[in-house]
Amino acid sequence: TVLGYDDVCKIDFGTHINGQIIDCAFTLTFNNKYDKLLEAVRDATNTGIKTAGIDVRLCDIGEAIQEVMESYEVELDGKTYQVKAIRNLNGHSIGPYRIHAGKTVPIVKGGEAVRMEEGEVYAIETFGSTGKGYVHDDMEVSHYMKNFDAGRVPLRLPRSKALLTVINQNFGTLAFCRRWLDRLGQSKYLMALKDLCDKSIVDPYPPLCDTKGCYTAQFEHTILLRPTCKEIISRGTDY
């Protein structure tokens, strides 16, 4: 894929050392007409980071994020759009070898009153859209992740057993894509992969889309709630 001048590209990536995960994302554009969209979402993410802390309620973070993000408007090709928080996407707690560790950080008002706790790690990520502010599954699935809570499930297909062994040995409970299976020399594995998904051993992660023709942006950082401070462990000199 070759990016064009009017394209909007979101880069969402993760890295880990011995299962300690950092999750991070930013949005890249070349045309400055999208600047207000990016500014809205970046400001919302930074607001979420500022609001987060030990004993803070997750619902209060979501309310603060939405208030900031939806105060922005962006003019695109002569039409003005309110930037809307995508209400069915959210941030999340992170655990060892577990990118989604159970707690969710909403980006709109009305989330759970669960509180953050000392020592927890969170991905604070926000998503803004010029569309409806609601996404749905669409297009072909290429990304997958083994279900962290999947117990031992009997598998009848030899290919499914073999593929699960490859996944366990190379990815464990971390995300992977089909291209990585190809690079490992795997072939004719789609039926086996579907079988693992049907049995909830592996979860598929399809692309998420808002209304056709709208634009979305995402910014994300990972924070660690230390006893005396809040550390942004994904922050660098460039972002």
TrEMBL record:
Keywords, comma-separated and alphabetical: Aminopeptidase, Cytoplasm, Hydrolase, Metal-binding, Protease
Cofactor: Co(2+); Zn(2+); Mn(2+); Fe(2+)
Catalytic activity entry: Release of N-terminal amino acids, preferentially methionine, from peptides and arylamides
GO molecular function terms noted in the UniProt entry: initiator methionyl aminopeptidase activity; metal ion binding; metalloaminopeptidase activity
InterPro entries the UniProt entry points to: Creatinase/aminopeptidase-like, Met_Aminopeptidase_Type2, Pept_M24, Pept_M24_MAP, Pept_M24A_MAP2, Pept_M24A_MAP2_BS, WH-like_DNA-bd_sf, WH_DNA-bd_sf
Database matches in CDD domains: MetAP2
EC number annotated for this UniProt entry: 3.4.11.18
GO biological process per UniProt: proteolysis
GO cellular component: cytoplasm
UniProt remark on cofactor binding: Binds 2 divalent metal cations per subunit. Has a high-affinity and a low affinity metal-binding site. The true nature of the physiological cofactor is under debate. The enzyme is active with cobalt, zinc, manganese or divalent iron ions.
Superkingdom of the source species: Eukaryota
Positions of the Peptidase M24 domain: 3-133
PANTHER family: METHIONINE AMINOPEPTIDASE 2 (PTHR45777)
Family note: Belongs to the peptidase M24A family.
Protein name stated in the entry: Methionine aminopeptidase
